Amino acid sequence: MLNSFFKRKQDESAMRDANRLPPGQSLTNKFPVLHYGPVPPFNPAAWNFRVWGEVEEEKSWTWEAFNQLPRTSLTMDIHCVTTWSKFDTLWEGVSVRALLEAGFFRLKPAARFVIQHAEYGFTANLPLEVVLAENFLLATHFDGQPLTPDHGYPLRGVVGAIPAQPDLKTPYFWKGAKWLRSLEFAASDRPGFWERAGYHNDADVWKEERYG
Ligand SMILES: Nc1nc2c(c(=O)[nH]1)N[C@H]1C(S)=C(S)[C@@H](COP(=O)(O)O)O[C@H]1N2
Ligand SMILES: [Mo]
């Protein structure tokens, strides 16, 4: 117990020295669960995932079709606004940029922001360039396993830091919606659920943009 405390503090110092610990954060080896409201049920026969808004043509995938899309693995450090950081987390799923590059859908020139829409009306907003960057993924798996219901099964947005690419903009982890059902591409920005509740719209972990 005491040993694991000192081990954690040692690991935390190492991350700080490597410039991987943002201001005001501490290292956790757990994976806390945080969300508003209940965990929604998943019915694979009724589920779909849609892209809409400033797109040339709306697209929708069933769960079966979604699982046929090209897949990407990604290792990132994730930083929660409640001050925990978890390092080298492994995610697997679908990259929005890869979908666009492979022509699965096309954006209209007006698209500049992305609103993630999740079950029960939850939303999270990000600039388009963040969603198209390498550190944003539509994730189905964490650490080699399907997401657990608490962490967003079957699909969630995830965003974090890639240590080798320090120039990528890194928002806090709340900018990834669990139980994701659609991406709305928008010409103008609209605050999401937590942003309306007082969280910072940009949420840059290095600038410690926690509250608006
Ligand atoms: N659908 C939904 N997604 C959500 C939230 C939520 O309330 N509902 N909360 C966000 C917040 S505040 C955080 S910190 C992360 C937590 O993800 P985790 O429970 O997997 O750690 O989910 C984000 N995604
Ligand atoms: Mo959060």
Helix content: 10-25%
Report the strand count.
11
Radius of gyration: 17 Å
Based on helices, strands and strand pairing, what is the structural class?
Answer: alpha+beta
Structural domains: how many: 1
Describe this structure in words.
- With 212 residues, the protein is an alpha+beta fold.
- It has one domain (40-207): Sulfite Oxidase, Chain A, domain 2.
- The chain has helices at 2-17, 63-66, 96-101, 128-131, 193-196; strands spanning 26-27, 48-53, 59-62, 72-79, 84-94, 113-118, 123-127, 136-142, 145-146, 156-159, 180-186.
- Strands 1, 4, 5, 8, 9 and 10 form a 6-stranded mixed sheet that branches. It has a 5-stranded mixed sheet with strand order 3-2-11-6-7.
- Strand 8 and strand 9 form a beta hairpin.
- 31% of the residues are buried.
- Bound molecules: the ligand Nc1nc2c(c(=O)[nH]1)N[C@H]1C(S)=C(S)[C@@H](COP(=O)(O)O)O[C@H]1N2 and molybdenum atom (MO).
- Molybdenum atom is lined by residues 34, 80-82, 174.
Write the topology of this structure.
Elements: H1 2-17, E1 26-27, E2 48-53, E3 59-62, H2 63-66, E4 72-79, E5 84-94, H3 96-101, E6 113-118, E7 123-127, H4 128-131, E8 136-142, E9 145-146, E10 156-159, E11 180-186, H5 193-196
Parallel strand pairs: 1-5, 2-11
Antiparallel strand pairs: 2-3, 4-5, 5-8, 6-7, 6-11, 8-9, 8-10
The structure holds the ligand Nc1nc2c(c(=O)[nH]1)N[C@H]1C(S)=C(S)[C@@H](COP(=O)(O)O)O[C@H]1N2 and molybdenum atom.
Molybdenum atom binds at residues 34, 80-82, 174.
